[in-house]
Design brief:
- By secondary structure, the protein is an alpha/beta fold.
- The protein has a single domain, classed as Vaccinia Virus protein VP39 (Rossmann fold, 3-Layer(aba) Sandwich).
- It contains eight helices and ten strands.
- It has a seven-stranded mixed sheet with strand order 3-2-1-4-5-10-9, with helices on both faces. A three-stranded antiparallel sheet has the order 6-7-8, covered by helices on one side.
- It is globular, with a radius of gyration of 17 Å.
- Bound molecules: S-adenosylmethionine.
- S-adenosylmethionine is lined by residues 1, 5, 16, 45-47, 50-51, 67-69, 72, 93-95, 109-111, 114.
C-alpha cells in the first residue's frame, strides 16, 4: 500500500469539509451505522478521527480508533485533548487486529480500497471480523468496486477528480485528486472487483453482505440543486457496504 498519510494528514483533514463528504458520504455512512448507543465501536483506519468522534457523539458506550499512520493518530489525539471524549486512538494495522470478539460495530471509511490484492483484502476483512461479536456489524465506504474509473467524468464541481491509468484489472491504481483552496493533493487507491470483495467477506465469516447506494441529505439541497448532485448520485464512485458476522 503506497499512500503514506503522515505528510498529507492535515490536507486530508481539510478535504473532509467538502460538501459531498458531509451530505453524501457522512450522511449515508451514519445511516448505515445506525444508532450506536450503548455499543462498543471500533473505527478501523480512523485517520484523524472524523468518524470516531462522530460515533462517540452519537452515544456509543466506548469507541476505539486504529490507524496505520502515526501522523493521523497524532491529529486524532490532538482533537481528543480538546474534546476529551474518552476515545482511545492506537497506531495499528487492520490486517493484524487481535481476536477480541468484543465490538458490536466496526466502521472503516476508505480502508478496503488500499488492498492491492485479494490476499491483502482478505487480511483486512479477517482482521475486522476477528474484532466483532457474533451478530456484530461492519459498515464501510470505499472507492466503488463496481465503478469503471477509466471512464469516470470530472467530479471537479464537488472538489475532486479521479484517474485510472493502464489496463483495468485487479490491482489497478486509482488516483483521487482533492482540490483545496491552497492547491491539490493526491491519494492512491486500488481496484478490486465486486466478486473479490464478496468472496473475501464470506471467507472472513460474514454471513450477510449488503451493498448500498449513496443517499443525499436533505440539507444538501439548501445550497445546491438536485441537478448539481445527480452526476455523483446516479453513478457513484464510492460504494457503501454492510456486513453481518
Ligand atoms: C482516506 S483515509 C480515511 C480516514 C478516515 N477513515 C476518514 O474517513 O476520515 C485512509 C486511512 O487508512 C489508513 N490505512 C491504510 N491502510 C491501513 C491499514 N492496513 N490498517 C490501518 N489503517 C490503514 C491510512 O493511514 C489513512 O489514515
Amino acid at each position: 500500500m503506497t499512500t503514506d498519510y503522515d505528510p498529507i494528514a492535515e490536507q486530508y483533514q481539510r478535504s473532509k469539509q467538502q460538501p459531498w463528504r458531509t451530505f453524501v458520504e457522512c450522511f449515508t455512512l451514519m445511516k448505515l451505522a445506525g444508532d450506536p448507543r450503548d455499543m462498543a465501536v471500533l473505527d478501523v483506519a480512523c485517520g484523524e478521527g472524523f468518524y470516531t468522534r462522530m460515533i462517540r457523539e452519537r452515544g456509543a458506550a466506548c469507541v476505539t480508533g486504529v490507524d496505520l499512520s502515526q501522523g493521523m493518530i497524532d491529529l486524532a489525539n490532538k482533537q481528543e485533548a480538546i474534546h476529551q471524549q474518552g476515545v482511545e486512538y492506537i497506531v495499528g494495522d487492520a490486517r493484524e487486529l487481535p481476536t477480541t470478539d468484543q465490538y458490536d460495530l466496526a466502521i472503516a471509511a476508505y480502508l478496503l480500497n488500499y488492498a492491492r490484492t485479494r490476499d491483502e483484502l482478505q487480511a483486512m476483512c479477517d482482521g475486522i471480523a476477528r474484532t466483532l461479536k457474533p451478530g456484530g456489524r461492519f459498515v464501510t465506504v470505499n472507492s466503488s468496486p463496481a465503478y469503471h474509473f477509466p471512464s469516470a467524468p470530472s467530479f471537479r464541481q464537488y472538489g475532486f477528480e479521479t484517474t485510472a491509468v493502464g489496463d483495468w484489472q485487479e490491482g489497478t491504481p486509482i488516483t483521487w485528486t482533492f482540490h483545496l483552496e491552497d492547491g491539490p493533493f493526491d491519494i492512491e487507491n486500488y481496484y478490486l472487483s465486486v466478486e473479490t470483495h464478496e468472496a473475501a467477506f464470506r471467507e472472513a465469516g460474514f454471513r450477510e453482505v449488503h451493498w448500498h447506494a449513496p443517499k443525499l441529505s436533505p440539507d444538501g439541497l439548501k445550497d445546491n440543486t438536485v441537478d448539481f448532485w445527480s452526476p455523483l448520485m446516479e453513478n457513484s464512485p464510492v460504494a457503501f457496504i454492510e456486513c453481518v458476522k
